[in-house]
Amino acid sequence: LVPPDILESICKTIANNFITERNSGEVMAVGLNTIREICSKSYLAMDQDLLIDLSKYKSYRDKSVSASARSLIQLFREKNPQLLERKDRGKPTEFQRDLVPLDYGQSKPKSYLEGAEIFQQDIDDQDKQSIDEDDQDD
């Protein structure tokens, strides 16, 4: 629950110090992967300009850097595709059409849990067994 504006400044600092042409490919890949991990926990830490700049490394000559940039793009396809350029968004899926990015501190409670019907059946079976036992005792 760290505010996104603090994390945004951390991401910009990492990008400015690690993800530059003067660093080696391994250092750049570590920087991109670190930003991806921060954004996987709090996707509001990334602004659109920085994401577009980092997504351009997908065609970088070093394979580890390009793979890291593509994984960052893939993360934002799932979390907040509106921040990506149109060409990086990919084909919209049913999940992406219904996706509404949440603001800071906002949550989306689930109205249905998978497997909940089994729990209700178990309670009904226990009630039925207790009624049967009561009938046998009489």
Automatic annotation (TrEMBL):
Query: Would you say which domain of life the source belongs to?
Result: Eukaryota
Q: Which Pfam families match?
A: SDA1_HEAT (PF08158)
- How is this protein annotated for GO cellular component? nucleolus
Annotated segments matching region Disordered: 119-138
Localisation: Nucleus, Nucleolus
Q: Where is the SDA1 N-terminal domain?
A: 1-61
Q: Which GO biological process categories is it annotated with?
A: protein transport; ribosomal large subunit biogenesis; ribosomal large subunit export from nucleus
Keywords linked to the UniProt accession: Nucleus, Protein transport, Ribosome biogenesis, Transport
Q: Which InterPro entries match?
A: Sda1, SDA1_N
Q: What does this protein do?
A: Required for 60S pre-ribosomal subunits export to the cytoplasm.
Q: Which PANTHER family match?
A: HSDA/SDA1-RELATED (PTHR12730), PROTEIN SDA1 HOMOLOG (PTHR12730:SF0)
What family does this belong to?
Belongs to the SDA1 family.
Give the protein name, as stated in the record. Protein SDA1
Q: What organism is listed for this UniProt entry?
A: Rotaria socialis
